[in-house]
Design goal:
Shape: elongated
CATH architecture of the largest domain: 3-Layer(aba) Sandwich
Strand content: 5-15%
Number of domains: 2
Strand order of the largest sheet: 8-7-6-9-10-11-12
Helix content: 25-40%
CATH superfamily of the largest domain: NAD(P)-binding Rossmann-like Domain
CATH topology of the largest domain: Rossmann fold
Largest sheet: 7 strands, parallel
Structural class: alpha/beta
């Protein structure tokens, strides 16, 4: 019996790949960049794969699914989100879509978010630039003054797994006060960390740090715009490790230039991978290239999870992380 065929659209950590190679014929796009759309369609048409392991930069729409042919059973997205996939088109063609959520991703993103908070508060990136440029000639009592995190108020927009992980670490370790917004009350966070659910407006007005952890939906697009930024304290910091379009970048840049907020740390961008010049050059901004979950442990786990989903579908079983 012929072995089923898998296409992986970009190199991923090897543990999941090894799992797939034991059971199937596996092709991997060999270049360290997103596969061009034309190339993806050409490969799908020429070899007729049974499964596709995609990454978040791949636009999996009706045209791509049609190019793959009727034998395609599953698209395993190597990501928690799946905004890059046309779910309705997949449903119509009876193609199963899976993703790779897991507790380790939440922990990695929480750690990265907290690192960004400290980077902003203690002006670590500015200090690094200052020292590397040879500008450190002598110590001074007002050199690069930052702010403490201890006893501050942190506003968490979206108290899911990531938000709860952040709340736990900051409350237990630094005694911060936790405000949050969420679709529903998070009773565990309220009981364990003293978190208080408030409106977004109240959270913005009272918080020293505002950190975003919501999915990209029509109602969260530009959730933070000019109006919301005006509500924040002049000394407050905004952190976004969720989805870029949750923040209106033009409004954010204007606020940062006017110094109407203390600063911002961003891991995601509205028109990613494009990062506006201002966000790359303003001293009160920290930018990272969508690497909040970029740890060896997390990315290997995602690789295994994607492989397990493919193996389940091609074996006639229900995948653990089915989206549709």
């Amino acid at each position: 019996m012929a072995r089923k065929k898998i296409l992986i659209t970009r190199e991923i950590p090897d543990e999941g790949v090894k799992m797939l190679k034991k059971k199937f014929d596996v092709d991997i796009y060999p270049h360290d960049r997103p596969i061009p759309r034309r190339e993806l369609i050409k490969r799908l048409q020429s070899k007729r794969y049974d499964a596709l392991l995609s990454i978040l930069t791949d636009n999996i729409d009706a045209k791509v699914l049609d190019a793959a042919g009727g034998q395609l059973m599953v698209v395993a997205n190597y990501a928690v989100g799946y905004n890059n996939i046309d779910l309705e088109a997949a449903k119509e063609r009876k193609v199963i879509i899976t993703n790779t959520p897991g507790p380790e991703i939440s922990e990695s993103v929480a750690e990265h978010t907290i690192a960004l908070m400290f980077g902003l508060a203690h002006r670590i990136v500015e200090g690094d630039d200052y020292a590397r440029a040879g500008r450190y000639k002598y110590w001074g009592p007002q050199l690069l003054l930052g702010s403490d995190i201890v006893n501050k108020t942190v506003g968490i927009v979206g108290m899911g797994r990531i938000g709860s992980s952040i709340a736990k670490r900051l409350h237990d370790g630094f005694g911060v006060k936790i405000l949050y917004t969420n679709r529903s009350n998070n009773k565990d966070a309220e009981k364990q960390f003293g978190a208080k659910r408030v409106s977004l407006n109240e959270l913005l007005k009272r918080s020293d740090f505002v950190t975003l952890h919501v999915p990209l939906l029509p109602e969260t697009h530009h959730l933070i715009g000019a109006k919301q930024l005006k509500m924040m304290k002049k000394t407050a910091f905004l952190i976004n490790t969720s989805r870029g379009p949750v923040v209106d970048e033009k409004a954010l840049i204007a606020a940062l230039k006017k110094q109407s907020i203390g600063g911002a740390a961003l891991d995601v961008y509205e028109f990613e991978p494009k990062i506006p010049y201002a966000l790359r050059t303003l001293s009160n901004v920290i930018s990272t290239p969508h690497t909040a979950s970029a740890t060896i442990e997390t990315r290997q786990s995602m690789s295994r999870r994607a492989a397990e989903n493919i193996i389940a579908v091609l074996s006639g079983k229900k995948p653990k992380n089915k989206v549709v």
